[in-house]
Structure formats: C-alpha cells, structure tokens
C-alpha cells in the first residue's frame, strides 16, 4: 500500500447476515484517517448512499497486527442495494482523492449474487497425530447446524465434535447473535481414505467440504491454508475456502507463511532512507570499534565484510582486525591494501598463529572506541547497523549493551534465510542458549571490567563473554531488526553441529562458570537434544513444604488421575488442598470422605459461593501452610516424577516469582509452552497444537526461558510474592486471571519462568463446560474490557518476550507480512 498518498484499501466485502439486501464493506486508509477522501459505491449508473461506522483503538491494532505499519482505525460502510439488482451488470467502489478518481473494487452482479451465503464458515486447520485426525474451524449457525464426517461412499465416520467460543468471529460479524457463533473441533480415528467430507447439515441444506486426511495431503493442505492465515478469517469470509485453495496452489509460501527474501527486501532501508541516515547528527556520537579476528580468511569474504562496514550510514567507527594466520599469512597483501584504503581501519599483524580468543583480544587491545562491536571474519553488516545502535544510545542513555536480530546468508551472498527474531532481554533464555549472538555491541567500560575473551572456553568464548557482561549490567537493549547476515558454512556449527562438539561442551562449562560466579552453585547444566541449547537443573539444598491447590467440581475420574500422578512424584514434602465448588454428584462427596485427611497429605475444603476461579484459589491459599503454592487444574496429569523439583528449583530463586510447565493435550500436541500477551487477541499460548516431537522456532518449546505469563493450569508461585500482590484478582472470574497474576508478579520485578522439563497432560477444563451461553459471553466481554484497561500499555506496545516482527494471529512465530 502506497503511504505517500492517502488511499483506501478494501479488506472485506459481504452481505449482511440477517438482511440480504444490505451490502457491507470494510477497509483502512494508508494514513490511518479518511481525511478529505470520499468513497462512492455504484450499481450500474446509480450511486448508492453509504452509512459509515468507525472502529478505533487497541482492538483494531490487534486485528491488523500483520500489517507492516500500525493500523488503529477501521472504516465500515453499508448500503441497501437496489431491489432489482440482477438487472445491473456491475458493482463498483470508487475513491475520490486530491489526485482524482480511482477504482477500488469491481465485481460483476452475477458473481456478487453467487457470494450471497446462507451460512458463513471457515475451515482453519487439518491436523493429525497418533492415529487421529483433527479438523478445526468456525461457523455461524444458520439453524440447528449439525456437523458430521463422511468417508468414501458417503459412509458416516464416528467422530467427536466439540464447540467453543470465538470472540474474533463475533467481532468480525457484529450483527450476528453471539450464541450462534461457534468454533468447532472435529476429531476422529484416521481412516484409509485419502479424503473425507466435512458436512454442515441444517434444515434441508447440506454444505460439503472435501478435506485431506492422508498425512502427505494434510501437509500440503496446511501449507495452502497457512499462506493466507496472515489475514486470518478475513480471506475466508471474502473468498471462501475453495477459492483460497485454488488460488494458493499457484502461490505456496514457506513455513512461516511469508517469503522471507521478499520480507527482507521490504524491511531493509532503501537508498533514500540510507542517505537520510548518513546526514543525521546525534547529540551523542560515540566511536564504535568493530573487532574481528581473522584466520586465513577467503579474500572475497573479507572484502565484502569490509565493504559492508565502509557502507555504514554512521561514520564514527573504527575497524580493528587481528590476523591470527601466522607468519605466512595468505591475506597479508590484502590487509595492507585495506589498511591504506581508510584511516579508520587498523590491522594487528601477528607472527604466530592464534586461537580465536587470543586473536580477538589482540583486536580489542587495539580498540580506542567507546563501544566494542563483535563480528566474524566472513559475515556482513546491514548498512544501517551502527546507525541503529547509536540511535538507541541517544534515546536510552542508560543502555550499556545492545544486540539485534540476524539471519543467515548463502556462501555467494545471494540468498538470505533462517532469520532469528529474538525477544527482548531474557535472562533465563540467555542462561539456556547464546541467543544474543550477532550483532552484539557493548560499552568499552564493561569490557574493561569483566575482562576480554577467555581461551578456556574457546568454541563458546563469545557465550562466556556475554554471560559475564550480563552479570555486570542488565541495561541491555534488543533492536528487533535484521542488522547482521551470518554467512552459512557447510562445516560451521550452524550447519553441521557435530563438527564442533567441543564448542557445545564449552558452552555448558561457560554457563556453569556463570552460575558459580553469581552464587548459584546448586546447579547442573546438560546439553539438550538441540546442540547449543542447554538445560539447567537445580539440586535442592532444602525441601520446603509445597501446597498443591486443586479446585474441583465432580469429574472424580479426572481428579483421581491427577492425585495418582502427584503420588508418583519423587518430591514428597507437599500437602494437597482440594477446593470443592458446587459438585452435585453423590459419588464426588463419597470420594471426598474417603480421601479427606488421608495421611495428613490431603484435605478437602468447601467453597459454597458461585464459581469464581480467582476466589476459589485464593480461598485455597488461606488454608495453605506451604512456602510455595502449586496451582493445578483437576484435569491435569503429571508425567515426570521430578516435575515438582523442576518447578521448585526455579521458584526458590530470589529473582523468580512464578514458574510454569509444558502441557500437552490428550493427543500429545502442545497445549502450553508459555503465554504471549496480545497473541490471538488478549493473550495466547505460543506453539499451541504443535506436535510433541517438534521443538519449535529456534527450539523455544524445549528451552527454559522467561515469559510475561504462564498458564495457571499448572503454576508454582512463591507464597510471599502471592500475598504481596494479594493473590488472583476476583474481578477476573474465569478469563485472564492467570495472565493478570503473572503480569502483577512481573511488576514486582520478579521473573515468570517457563520450564519445559516439568511436563503434564491437560485435558482442558472439562469440569467447567462451554463458554458460549449469553451470560458467559457477557462475562467474558466484561473481563476482557477489565484486562484491556489494566494492561493497556503492554497490549499497545507489545509483549517484550515476543518479537514485533511475528504475526499476532499465528502461534508458531510466523512472520508478519
């Protein structure tokens, strides 16, 4: 969309759900406001009067989070079409601007009438694991709709159909009765057929969608679907699933749903912006020394690297090269040429061959800058890299270290791939993997204090160094832009990890040394299944009492399963407090009588008020004796016997307030691996529905790290912290209470940690029922407004643990368009 001139972009057009004579279209303006522009809709030769509604604020920003720039105003237009519409040939929408008249949209009346639907629906995903197939989507009930699955020869396949609340669809169709808007999930055993028919039956009508169920076809289908998910349900509403599939067969994107090469070209600064940057003068213009160790570097790579530094739009830099190739260095002449080509280039010539740490340190010793930047001898900086760093240092004077996003570039420099979009400073993620990597710039005073690179950790010398820097300061800033291109080598750690096992072993030692320096001596560091990602286990010096609080209403089979899984845990110093709330079945109370007071481990207390998840858990805490609180849903089942120790080890740290676990659905897919505020609306579970054998974007599923929130289906909280924030907020009866709790813990300066090595099944709120009745919808909307008002800032600015380049309508770290 051209932002130079204010122009209208059509996002959606359709007929009114309840009045087929009314036509609706929605869109946005490139400058976010309509200003003096005017829209006209014509049918044939007749101009039709338009009614306009404007929607503004955080809700719109979330809906259009996939746009390349912020959108906070949506315009909706409606009109009544002529009664004898079929006599006309075309419907057109024109826009009148200062530049004149332009056509926004045109459709033949014949095609328009075909789009007039009795029922709106969308198929969003088809998945399969462990012998089952799962189809998800939504529909707006056109009259007692029933869903069924048909196989070959139209035989009915036995399936489980679950319905749920869909706030996003309700927002998209404001005229719909909220109780008729339903999300659905159809689950059935995998059949021999390659395809099945998903049928919506209502009255005498049937809509059939042919969907793939063979694994290879499912993968292809989901690629097709994902290529348009960046605009969510909007595309489905506008075109329907069949056209989505037909059109996307011609245009399959990569796994993220966005072609990265095109994305990069769009987001790197153009020549005009670079020229403007080169003319800018900052109040503070520090010298940045870029230190690079060389070792028999291929001449073309070194020239390209130096050229990328000479091309910087910020000019107060020096390049400090140290050649560790030895006396007969093959790049000696090239270095002499480079040194004479620019006074800002320094070369340290060494007679002996040097290892990586010592070689880098020779370059650091020659540096005279206020800040030190690190780069490898064959990589590339983007031309705005140093400019962006200095811009941050001027805007945030207290910042002492900076890191940026990065990607990989092919050997010939033509292809960019594997972008690494990072979170803001994440202490536990840094303790698990060197996600800082490149570009990293640090104040020279920090280097002087912590010391240069340590050869004891060669192979992971940079990891050891950034860990020491993080001990000195947490004033570390993340620039969410690609500023560095890491050249990919076939034999490098990135491409062939096994070729540098010594580097990964050094990484584990670097983390342990870091822990020893900061006094975390009761730690063990091990390698995970992904080389370069480490796991920390805390051996407990003491075993404090843990109070396990489980709200329960009937569903005794689930509760029994939960309690038996606790019994299997190796940690034994716990008490279980079951908070009974409004059960009705006789067997429930008989079971309570049988277990109450059992071995001084279990007690049942009775909540006699209306259901309020926050109040019920707070009531449980009133009866808790432990120093640590473990909140568990009654439909969870602990999988690993060390689960409590895994949670407690982190929670006992003074800087941590709460710890969450990795939760799976019954079919083994991910239910919870951390919560991102703003994802999917208010907040969402990252990597939701990912198969359990996948590790996620840069192994984030299996990596210990900090998040803004974790789910209270399994969360351990320091009791002292819980009491300081006065527990769960009872104004949030059902929705977002756990997110709110975590955010208030974060306000205290305490961390919320996700530990994937505490693992549970979560059978997903069976005892509470669905949320699609009118009173529940009203309550949900009320609680949504309450949460949005309290946490407006983070909803507006974005979750610091989620990169702003990721889409907020995807759960797999897919790129925004």
Automatic annotation (TrEMBL):
<protein>
    <submittedName>
        <fullName>Glycosyltransferase family 2 protein</fullName>
    </submittedName>
</protein>
<dbReference type="GO" id="GO:0016757">
    <property type="term" value="F:glycosyltransferase activity"/>
</dbReference>
<dbReference type="Pfam" id="PF00535">
    <property type="entry name" value="Glycos_transf_2"/>
</dbReference>
<dbReference type="InterPro" id="IPR001173">
    <property type="entry name" value="Glyco_trans_2-like"/>
</dbReference>
<keyword id="KW-0808">Transferase</keyword>
<dbReference type="InterPro" id="IPR029044">
    <property type="entry name" value="Nucleotide-diphossugar_trans"/>
</dbReference>
<feature type="domain" description="Glycosyltransferase 2-like">
    <location>
        <begin position="547"/>
        <end position="669"/>
    </location>
</feature>
<feature type="domain" description="Glycosyltransferase 2-like">
    <location>
        <begin position="289"/>
        <end position="448"/>
    </location>
</feature>
